[in-house]
Amino acid sequence: MKRPFAYDNFAYDARHLANSWHTQAQMTNWYQIVIPDLDEVCFMVRQCNLPVLTTSPVQLPYGNSVAKVPGQASWDASTFSFLDLIGKDIEEKLLSWHYCVYDPDTGAQGWIEQFKKDVHIVQYGPDGQAQRPWHMYGCWPSRVDPGQMNSENASAKVLQVTIEFDRAVRVSGIQAPPTFASKGEQSYIPFSVAGGVVSHGGG
After folding, report:
1. What would the mean pLDDT of 188-194 be, rounded to a whole number?
2. 132-145 and 158-164: which strand pairing?
3. What integer is the mean pLDDT of 180-202?
4. For residue 39, what is the domain's CATH number?
5. Residue 153 domain boundaries
6. How many CB atoms lie within 10 A of CB 185?
7. Phi-psi region of 89 (alpha: psi -120 to 50; beta: other; left: phi over 0)
8. What tens digit of pLDDT does each residue of 8-34 get?
9. In a domain, 143, yes or no
């Protein structure tokens, strides 16, 4: 008996969604960030927002209606969350970066080359391959929330940092995994940043 055409097109189950690396979903915890001079902070990241570009509309009213055309484009501020460590003093490292923007002790602002950094967010596949990098240029912290203490529970303290930036670039395409052979135990994704370009460090 011939099966219905719909069955041949996998209309009854999800087998067509998970049968090759082409249909591998990007998981939200498969990522790593790179902030120059803040390596120990980067490994404590718990959450980050990917860059969002907003183009403001300009209204052109005429008669009984309004036409809209694109105006200036701007990148929305991004929020990063970090787990605080006592020994590494993640709080102090993030506050030091923020105080380069404005020092509350002296009341002076810093020079832009002292605090603007290029931040990189890399999404990757289940084995650390198929990397999809974002490059965020001219990043600086506009707000550092050192967290909240609470006598009612014993949860780990998390810091939140609001990052302003000038522009972001999503590198087009992905590096597909050549094989699925095991690369051994890795506690982190092997990539490096040189000259603003993300590259594999593990070959």
Report:
1. 42
2. antiparallel
3. 40
4. 2.30.110
5. 25-174
6. 5
7. left
8. 555 567 777 766 767 778 899 999 999
9. yes
Residue 16 lies inside a defined structural domain of this protein: no
Are the CB atoms for 144 and 161 separated by under 8 Å? yes
Task: Determine the distance from the C-alpha atom of residue 88 to the mean position of all C-alpha atoms in its chain, rounded to a whole number.
Answer: 22
Place of tokens 């609001």: 162
Q: Is 116 helix (H, G, I), strand (E, B) or coil?
A: coil
Whole-structure pTM value: 0.78
Q: Which residue has the higher pLDDT, 116 or 15?
A: 116
Q: How many domains does the chain have?
A: 1
What tens digit of pLDDT does each residue of 122-143 get?
Answer: 998 888 777 889 999 999 999 9
Residue with tokens 């960030």: 33
3-state class percentages of the chain: helix first, strand second, coil last, to nearest 5: 15, 40, 45
Cβ neighbours of residue 42 closer than 8 Å, sequence gap 6 or more: 32, 33, 34, 35
In a domain, 64, yes or no: yes
Q: Are the CB atoms for 43 and 84 separated by under 8 Å?
A: no
Which single residue is written with the structure tokens 């949860």? Answer: 155
Whether 9 maps to a domain, the answer reads no
What was the pLDDT predicted at 127? Answer: 80
